[in-house]
# Entry
Amino acid sequence: MTSTTTTSTTAAAPPQDAMRLRELVFGAACAAAVRAAARLGVADALDDTPQDAERLAAAVKADPKALRRLLRALACYGVFTEEADGRFAHTDMSRQLREDDPRSLRWIALWCTEPWTWAAWPKLDEAVRTGDSVFEGLFGKEFFPYLHEDAAESAHVFNRAMTTSSVQSARDVAELLDLDGVSSVADIGGGQGHVLASLLEKHPGLHGTLLDLPGVAGNADPRLREGGALADRVAIVPGDCRRAVPVQADVYIIKNILEWDDESTRRTLANVVGAARPGARVIVIENLVDDSPSMRFTTAMDLMLLLNVGGAKHTRGSMAARMAEAGLVLGEVRPVNAYLHAFESTVPA
# Structure
């Protein structure tokens, strides 16, 4: 009797690979659920005390039955947890959807699920066939012009997400880099300069330069701008690193900008090498699509880059090859955190 029951149960259970594939093809539902929770502010409404769906629904102005369905779906992935009495509580992941959490991923979650993404992902087969972006065909403009001219809310989300990501990784970069004996550092394509600010705060004798496009550099971290705590040790230089790098420094940092197309990567590295003194250090910091504990995340970003700008994330080998082609002498490659690697190199004599 026992043997028959066991056999019957086993036969009725779906194979794990089939169940996993079913879950994968519903991946959009999971992403949409995270987005909905972030937009509703559910994580912010839930404090350290578990709450029922009715109370949470009142706080976020949602339908209680529908919110319970959303929370149960998210709890299957470890985003929130459902208690035995039906109340919902925070998990480590759900806390990172809070606005006030120092590790907050709320804006990043929103950015990765912006409205344009839902139109682009179904075109991935086309992008794979052509090896190029599908964005202009969908929206009539290239990605960044569309974002800043036609999608103001999405542009705001993008800026907040990039700021969040940069602030969080800046602390890790500052902890990793040994800048003893270094007097000057240049952050090339450094956005608002969060990495530079973290380095200057850690090393009081250091002077820095921030180089980025005029519209970006003009909105630099307040610590770097006139009147800021670090302003007397900083030069903010508006410019395009793909055209020129009019900066000399002991150390150049190039973080997360060598991923759009090979020609832009080659020009940027060549411009840095052309500007630098012999012996200067060049540190490239990138997400990798191999040799990384965050492969599911980085390979997904790689596909998104293909869709929106026709770019690509690097492998360890491809990044090392680009740097060698530029004439850099490659040194150690070290993880910055679970998502980033730092490639140390020097400009030859």
Q: What stands out?
A: The first helix runs from residue 2 to 12. Residues 320 and 346 are 13 Å apart (CA to CA).
